[in-house]
Amino acid sequence: MSGQTSFVQQAPNHPETSARFGDLHPPFDKQAAIPEANRCFFCFDAPCTGACPTHIDVPRFIKKIASGNLSGSARTILDANILGASCARACPVEVLCEGACVMHRFNKQPIQIARLQRFAMDSLHASGAPLPFAPGPDTGLSVALIGAGPASLACAAELRRRGIRAQLYDARPLPGGLNTYGVAEYKLPLVESLREIEMLSQLGVEFHFATMIDAEMLAGLEHEHDAVFLGIGLGGIHRLGIAGEQLPGVTNALDLIAGYKSGECTTVPARVAVVGAGNTAIDAAVAAVRLGATEVHIAYRRGPEQMSAFAFEYEHARLEGVKFVWHTQPTRILGGESVEGLELTRLAASADGQAGSEFCLAVDLVVLAIGQGTHSGLLSGKVQVERGRIVIDRATGQTSDPKYFAGGDCTNGGREVVDAVADGKRAGIGIAAWLGAALASA
Amino acid sequence: MRAFDAGWGGAVWKTIGEPITNVSSRYSSIDWEGRRMMGFNNIELISDRSIEINLQEMAEAKRRYPKHAVIASLMVESKRETWHDIVQRAEDAGADGLELNFGCPHGMSERGMGSAVGQVPEYCEQITAWVKQKARTPVIVKLTPNISDIRMPARAAKRGGADALSAINTINSITGIDLDTFQANPNVDGKSSHGGYCGPAVKPIALNMVQQVCADPASALPLSGIGGIANWQDAAEFILLGCGTVQVCTAVMHYGYRIVEDMQDGLLAWMAEKGFASIDDFRGRSIPNVVNWNQLNLNYQIVARIHEDLCIGCQLCYTACWDGAHQCIHLDHTSPAPDTTRTPAMVEAEAARRISTTPIPKLDAGGSGSSNARTPLERIPRVDEHHCVGCNLCSLVCPVEGCITMERIENGLAPQTWAERVAAGITPGGACEVVNTK
After folding, report:
1. Does the beta-carbon distance from A105 to B361 stay under 8 Å?
2. Contacting residues of A for B331, CB less than 8 Å apart
3. What ipTM is given for this predicted complex?
């Protein structure tokens, strides 16, 4: 239940997976980090900081690397983003800090912020120093946090720094949610997510694992605690609703990724089709390549202009050898005992056929990555939900029920780890402010 | 001789005297933002080899390279006979000239030589005169910068009959302290001693001293420029302030003799571009452009202008003007009206309140990060030209060439200097009873 057991020691250790999923962006050593840090202009009101959802003071932490103040650099990062180590690896920095770097307009080479951030965080971890923050003096207040993903972890850190108890409930056996189980291993290894949460737990965060919260339990938690934070993420991956979907050999991207990260799955068959063209689809397709597939297709019902994957993710998949089949809709999954093929219908004319014509991809595994569903049962009538998303005040995370706060994928429909951290951070501060105001008026 | 093969025209053979014992280590340096040896420091003394060997080798070098100039740098104890003796021997070995080392700031000065001579104009004049009694080749006096006014030893050397001067020698320095051991650099068994500072960091100091000497009729002699010269541009600047030759050491220690190739190539290309056929065509050309402050035109007015098409939005000019200058650059391009009341703290507070999310290509077309090719208007600072004092700071911090230019404002006022104002009785001249600026 508590943070007594080392999360890192519980991490699965599969050397083969580690070998197949080596760092996409290798770490800097000091010799590389310092010249890169010196290259930063130290912009005022820096665009990188503005672009970061958690507003890490990027030039400040970079200049601390340059000055040799590595502990101060890590503290600067963690002060804004308690999952700074994960974000250094998992963030799509091309569209965040590095995308905003003024160097794009100077010599076209943005500062390698992510690698510098990782350098600072790795240095902190290597030093064995504790988290550079202490819990605040106990206020006697307590908050239940549903889900132990990035949003809840960030919220919990803010609460603990303000002396508020933070009790996290999660259905899985280990903390971190998608940060632990859902980020491609070549970006963020599972063990690194756990290492970071291990540090965070030094603030006295209390974990309740393998605990699935239902509506009844939620009502109990609401009664026991002074506030409730919902960091429940999204539901399972959507189904296609076509024939053959029940066949063995049909899975979804999140299960595939969690499977190989936790060591339950170490190989995939030779021919794989991924349905969908979001970032998760790319992660799944690349994972299939790394897990031994020789032919991996991504089928998408629209064209490259409409896909939700980032351009650099698309490029990465192409470099890994993933082939894209545009403007196609799966209409049937073929097979007797298990999957043998995926029938696709062309939605637009191409050199290979008319719109409406069908063709079949011979595959052994179909991976669905067509978006996640939302939770509804748990929240029925509790808080306002619109289009499957919990409605919050963006600045404080407060929901329509003032005692409930929320953040992360369940409020934004599914974005990045850093967005969840930012939501959780604002909600943690928001909860503390709300409880403080409530105390003051009582 | 390898230097001559590389293309160097001459060498100063330094420094010949009674052999000394050197320490190890001897050098230390200042790095700056990842670049090595911005400033360099040594605690070496003069040659640790005998006068005989030095002079034998010099004779051999002159025999093999008769057309290259070899100057013997000399430092001996302050006795007339000793100086006469060394002068005779150096010239007999074939030296084309003599450089009297009156500048070495460490070690030798404790023994009454080097800067101990250069800092006392009377000694400087005396020894120069002794040397001139004997010398048949030109005598160059090398000046120390470790003195309040370099013109004093320069004038003394001229009075003593020197044919030329060279400047500057190294500057007293401690380059740094090791923060683990608390020992200074360079480290000699846990101790250090002040050394002589040189390299690119000292060039501005050297240029000033060169200008002071060349602009002073009582000091002016043919001058060999020394101090942080590493490329042709540096060399050209020293020549523009009056030097007839320049000397290079630290840059060669850093990169080797081969650097002379571009010094020559670059200088010749620049000379051709400017229409100069020889060094004499531009030597000293910038001397009249450096005057006392009271000769500067007080009515000359410039203001900073930001070229928005070049601005990359780093806002370094903004923070520099607010915290280091005159608070006349503002971030109000997107305000309805110019707003000079918005402080940097307000800008930062607004930014901290702003909520950013990761853009999703499909959903957030045109969102943040969708295009970084153009600088957002709100990030381009604006100069309040009515309050700009034309200090240059913003243009100095701006990383982009030509983005901030200083533009002349035609204010219709005739040029007027402080000296002219005083002469016209507009401004009191100030008390000059104790301060003699002559």
Report:
1. no
2. 45
3. 0.90
